Here is the input.
Amino acid sequence: MTVGAGAYIAAGSAITRDVAADALALGRGRQVEKPGRAAAIRKEKTAAKEARQKRGQG
Here is the structure.
């Protein structure tokens, strides 16, 4: 991938193709929602923290 001289890349963009000189490139993936995943992550983190504390590491 090549970004041309003077080109701007918008904040948060995931650029996957060449950008011409002096162009403004905007790229963003489609939003995906995974129901219940946040709760599962919290549960995993809590379990890991409790395990570390039990071993005296936390």
